Structures are given as structure tokens and as C-alpha cells.
């Protein structure tokens, strides 16, 4: 991707000074830790970490990021702004025909993802917004810790709301966004580019 080299520093997760990520463990290893602690066992089960769910295919990515959505209470009924991240044509289409965001409204980024195997922790969503090649915004939000969902359903994560810019200058031109889902070890689970424009209405 064209902006890949210049964005690398901005797309690295912020690390807390003195924090060192522990060695990665499989779901089976986590399930066996402190097996006699009942409250810990319940917490691990809520993350999908059970001895029953430890067998399975551990090849392929630990995480599959499925969709990115822009959610807002001001969206007209029935309108949805979502990108299927498994459809390269749809991602490319948003670069040619940017998503329209209403100016001066509250909205939030929402992603849907599936944990395929193992346990994820320290995983973040980061995006860099550029206009005319200059960085105008950066968002970095933690996903949390998850194991494979026992029901097989994907997880949905809503990030903190923010307000879209407003005014004639904000509405002129489009904004290019580079998004990434990455963990503290630097493992990248998803990396894509998309665009949006601001307008008076959705």
C-alpha cells in the first residue's frame, strides 16, 4: 500500500513503560493453569477457555477481523455504514467512493471479529486519518482479552464515541484512513485503507 512505509511508527501500539508482555500460551495451557480455582475457572470459561474447547485447528490467524462499521444515533433508520473486510472489492470501492459522514455529529467505530484459536490480549485497533497527505487524527483503542467464543459467534467491540469535524473547510476534500488491528508483540491481524468525506447530511 502506498502509505505503508510512512505510517509504520504511527501504527505501532503504544506500550506502557516497564510492561513486558508474557509468553504466549495456547488455550489448553491457559485452561490448565490454576485448574482448582473455581472463580478463575468461571472467568476463563467466560473467555472461551475450557478444557473442552482446547482441541482444534490452531493453523491460520488467531483473529479474523470481519467488519468495520461507523455507528451513530443520528443515522437515518435502516442506514448502515459497514465495510466487509473480507471483500477486497468493497474496501477498494470505499477508496474510490468515500463513505459519507455527517458533519458535527457523534459517531463511533465498531468492529466485528472472531477469535479462531488461542487467547488474545493486548490487541488494539489503531487508525491514522490523513487529509492531503497530512495526519489530522489518530485513534488507538484496546479490544481487551478474548478466547474463542464457545458459541462460535463473532465478538463486537464498540469504541469510544467521537465527534466528526464540521464547517466548509472540513467538508472540502476526502480523508484517507489507514486501519490496523495489532497486538503488543507487533503481530498484525488486519491492515487496510479506506476513505470518508464529510457532508451536511448522511
Structural commentary:
With 202 residues, the chain is α+β, with helices and mostly antiparallel strands. The protein has one domain (3-11, 59-199): Coagulation Factor XIII, subunit A, domain 1 (Coagulation Factor XIII, Chain A, domain 1), CATH 2.70.50. The protein is 16% helix and 39% strand. It is built from five helices and ten strands, in the order αααββαββββββαββ. Strands 1, 2, 4, 7 and 8 form a five-stranded antiparallel β-sheet that branches. The two termini are 29 Å apart. The relative contact order is 0.23.
- The overall number of domains is 1
Sheet-strand content, in percent, reads 35-45%
Query: In the CATH hierarchy, what is the superfamily?
Result: Coagulation Factor XIII, subunit A, domain 1
Query: Which value, in Å, is the CA radius of gyration?
Result: 19 Å
Helices and strands, in order, run as HHHEEHEEEEEEHEE
Average pLDDT, to the nearest integer? Answer: 84
Largest sheet: 5 strands, antiparallel
In CATH, the architecture is Distorted Sandwich
How far apart, in Å, are the first and last alpha carbons? Answer: 29 Å
Helix content: 10-25%
Global shape: elongated
Number of strands: 10
**Number of contiguous helices:** 5
Report the top-level CATH class: Mainly Beta
* Uncertain runs: none
In CATH, the topology is named Coagulation Factor XIII, Chain A, domain 1
Instruction: Give the helix/strand class.
Output: alpha+beta
Subcellular location: Cytoplasm
GO biological process, one term: Rho protein signal transduction
Region (Disordered): 1-23
Family: Belongs to the Rho GDI family.
